[in-house]
Design goal:
The chain is mostly helical and 78 residues long. 49% of the residues lie in helices and 0% in strands. It contains 2 helices and no strands. The relative contact order is 0.04.
């Protein structure tokens, strides 16, 4: 009998705590916290980078002086 009363008391306290916490929550609905009127700096940065890449292609530059690559001699065991 004591266990049943103790279990009912615990359940009642949990329900009371949950209801109290639920009443204290703000009623904002599904809105996010914070403002949403900010500029997306990543989008502008990526767009500027893509414009810079298009303006600076390798086809516009003259061919760079390339050094002749000499083949490596084969290594003989000693």
């Amino acid at each position: 009998m004591t266990e049943i009363l103790f279990a009912l008391a615990v359940v009642a306290l949990v329900v009371y705590g949950l209801e109290r916490n639920h009443r204290r929550q703000l009623r904002l609905g599904s809105r996010l916290a914070g403002s949403t009127d900010t500029e997306d700096r990543d989008l502008s940065r990526v767009t500027a980078d893509l414009h810079a890449v298009v303006a600076h292609t390798t086809a516009d530059r003259p061919a760079a002086h390339r050094r002749q690559v000499t083949p490596v001699r084969s290594i003989r065991p000693a």
